[in-house]
C-alpha cells in the first residue's frame, strides 16, 4: 500500500473550515445554495395546507351546502384546519371570525371533524359562559384526533349564539364561531 502526500500552494485568499481550506469565491456558491434551501423550507412552512405557518385560511363558502327546496343546510366544521401552529380553529378561523347565519326554521346539519392533536367538539351554545349545549342533541361528543361526528339542529327564534368546543379551555383559546339566527334569508358561512 502506497501513501501520497498532497500539498497545495497558498495564495492568501483561503478561508479555513473544519474539513478543508478553500477560497472565498467557493463560499458564495455554498452560501447561495444554503440560502436557496432555507427559502424553499420557509415557503413550505407557510403553506396553509401542508406547512405549519399561518398561511391564508380557506374560503368558508366551500364548507356549507344549502338546499333551498328542503330548507336545509350542511355545514362542515374541521377543527384544527388547516395545519397550523394554532389549532384552536374551525375551518382555519378562530375567535368568532367565522360567522354562520341561519334563518329561523331551517334545518342545519353540522359535520364536525377533528384534525387536531387534542380532543375537540362542536356544540351550539348560548354564549361564552356556557358549559352545556342549548339542547342536549345539539352537540358532538369530545372527538379524538382523526374522528368525526354529526348533529342536526333547527333554530326556532332569532338571536346570537355560538358553535364552540366544550373541551375545557378550548373556547377561551378561540375555538368558537359566531352563530347568527335571523328571521329570513338563506344560510351562509362567511369570514368577518
If you had to describe this structure to a student in words, what would you say it looks like?
This protein has one helix at residues 24-45, and strands at 14-16, 21-23, 64-67, 72-79, 98-103, 107-114, 123-125, 148-153, 159-164, 176-182, 188-191. The chain is mostly beta strands and 192 residues long. The protein folds into two domains: 14-45; 60-191, Immunoglobulin-like, CATH 2.60.40.420. The model is unreliable at 1-11, 13-31 and 34-53 (pLDDT under 50).
Brief write-up:
It is built from one helix and eleven strands; from the N terminus they run ββαβββββββββ. It has one helix at 24-45, and strands spanning 14-16, 21-23, 64-67, 72-79, 98-103, 107-114, 123-125, 148-153, 159-164, 176-182, 188-191.
Quote the CATH topology of the largest domain.
Immunoglobulin-like
| Alpha carbon gyration radius | 27 Å
Give the strand line-up of the largest sheet: 7-9-10-5-11
Shape: globular
**What share of the residues does DSSP label as strand, in percent?**
25-35%
CATH superfamily of the largest domain: Cupredoxins -  blue copper proteins
Described by strand count, sense and barrel closure, the largest sheet is: 5 strands, mixed
Order of SSEs: EEHEEEEEEEEE
What is the name of the CATH class of the largest domain?
Answer: Mainly Beta
What gap, in angstroms, lies between the N and C termini?
77 Å
Number of domains: 2
Pairing-aware structural class of the strands and helices? mainly beta
CATH architecture of the largest domain: Sandwich
As a percent range, the share of helical residues equals 10-25%
Q: Number of helical segments?
A: 1
Oligomer: single chain
Roughly what is the average pLDDT, rounded to an integer?
A: 81
The poorly predicted ranges are: 1-11, 13-31, 34-53
The beta-strand count equals 11
